[in-house]
């Protein structure tokens, strides 16, 4: 399997621009998670989906952030408008339905820099 | 609510020395516990996990961890580290009935010769 695939790997943009991060989970995985990693806060859970339905978005920082999962093989995280404090590495992770293993499979991350 | 505290943000050690990375958690329910490793510019990989059973868990690359329920700890150990173990290590917890992992802030392990 190719693993969790994220794009772009690196994004540099200017404040106020829209940013879209993409994720393709591992085929057959029913859960998809978006995390944000910063030096100050570490790894924060932003939102997660089960069978394409958002289950918990309490970690989404504010209305500028939105996430969608239109089908089982694709998810997006959008920031509009972007701000310098959004600079971080954004990780997507997935796992199968069997909750007893608990293990998440991570992508390599999207490093966002907002100038 | 669950939380994870990694007591050391940075741990420098010499090659072939033993190392312990400390992790404490808080939760009002039964939990699963994990250690992940992150090499530079990469995603996180699972090192080991505790779900149930034996409290001593062995993982990849010679790492092991011990679950101590009374002390709510899950410390990671390796008897002899290598330069290639230099990385960021994350402790994580999830409720047994829950879904998402909550991560600690990470410990940077730096191994030098």
Could you give a short account of the major beta sheet of chain B? 6 strands, mixed
* CA radius of gyration of chain B: 13 Å
Residue stretches of chain B low in confidence (pLDDT < 50, at least 5 long) are none
Shape of chain A: globular
Portion of residues in beta strands of chain A equals over 45%
Strand content of chain B: over 45%
Assembly of the depicted chains: heterodimer
Structural class of chain A: mainly beta
Report what the structure shows.
- The complex is a heterodimer of chains A (115) and B (113).
- Chain A has no helices and eleven strands.
- By secondary structure, chain A is mainly β.
- The radius of gyration of chain A is 13 Å and the shape is globular.
- Chain B is mainly beta and 113 residues long.
- In chain B, 0% of the residues lie in helices and 55% in strands.
- In chain B, strands 2, 5, 6, 10, 11 and 12 form a six-stranded mixed β-sheet that branches.
- Chain B starts with a strand and ends with a strand.
- The interface between A and B is medium-sized, with 24 and 21 residues.
SSE layout:
The complex is a heterodimer of chains A (115) and B (113).
Chain A: E1 5-7, E2 10-13, E3 19-24, E4 31-38, E5 42-50, E6 53-56, E7 65-71, E8 74-79, E9 88-95, E10 105-106, E11 110-114
Parallel strand pairs in A: 2-11
Antiparallel strand pairs in A: 1-3, 3-8, 4-5, 4-9, 5-6, 7-8, 9-10, 9-11
Chain B: E1 3-6, E2 10-14, E3 19-21, E4 23-26, E5 31-38, E6 44-50, E7 56-58, E8 64-68, E9 73-78, E10 87-95, E11 102-103, E12 107-112
Parallel strand pairs in B: 2-12
Antiparallel strand pairs in B: 1-4, 3-9, 5-6, 5-10, 7-8, 8-9, 10-11, 10-12
């Amino acid at each position: 399997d190719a693993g969790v695939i994220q794009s772009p790997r690196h994004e540099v943009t200017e404040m106020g621009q829209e940013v879209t991060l993409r994720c393709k989970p591992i085929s057959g995985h029913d859960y998809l998670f978006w995390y944000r990693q910063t030096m100050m806060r570490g790894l924060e859970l932003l939102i997660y989906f089960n069978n394409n339905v958002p289950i918990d978005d309490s970690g989404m920082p504010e209305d500028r952030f939105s996430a969608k999962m239109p089908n089982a093989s694709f998810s997006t995280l959008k920031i509009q408008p972007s701000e310098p404090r959004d600079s971080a590495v954004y990780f997507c992770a997935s796992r199968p339905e069997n909750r007893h293993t608990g293990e998440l499979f991570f992508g390599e991350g999207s490093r966002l820099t907002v100038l | 609510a669950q939380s994870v505290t990694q007591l050391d943000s940075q741990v420098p050690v010499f090659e072939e020395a033993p190392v312990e990375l400390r992790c404490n958690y808080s939760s009002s329910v039964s939990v699963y516990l994990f250690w992940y490793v992150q090499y530079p510019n990469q995603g996180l990989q699972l090192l080991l996990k505790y779900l149930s059973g034996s409290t001593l868990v062995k993982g990849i690359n010679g790492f092991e961890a011990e679950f101590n329920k009374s002390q709510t700890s899950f410390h990671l150990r390796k008897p002899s580290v290598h330069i290639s173990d230099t990385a960021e290590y994350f402790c994580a917890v999830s409720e047994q009935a829950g879904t998402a992992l909550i991560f600690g802030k990470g410990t940077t392990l730096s191994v030098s010769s």
